[in-house]
Amino acid sequence: MSDCIFCKIAGGEIPSSFVYEDDNVAAFNDVNPQAPVHILVIPKKHIASSAAVDDSSVWSSLMSSAVKIARKLGLEENGYRMVINTGEQGGQSVPHLHLHLLAGRNLGWPPG
Ligand code: 5GP
Ligand code: ZN
Question: Which of 48, 50, 68, 76 lies in the 20 to 30 Å Cα band around 57?
Fold first, then answer.
């Protein structure tokens, strides 16, 4: 998608420093962090939201990458949260599937 900000980041059109990258996934720091660790993990190919996933390998690559990053950053001991907002009421503001990896403070529950 030519006008999608996360496609531009994944494709290198917007220069970004990746926390993690493989053939299918890229991960980078959120521009407006909500916790000391706030990383976005995205599929490189454009998928509008979780509701548009039609191939379960997307889930395995996204989730396993997030867990790998959490392990690499040593987040397991104190814990972390993975969030995928979907659609308007779900709080999704960027229409390219992304997983938020949050850590580094006590995260409240229920979410807002
Ligand atoms: P959503 O609200 O869709 O679940 O999350 C979108 C996230 O993308 C937000 O946390 C927002 O701060 C982040 N974001 C939006 N635009 C950019 C950008 O250009 N660069 C980065 N690194 N993060 C972005
Ligand atoms: Zn996109």
Answer: 76
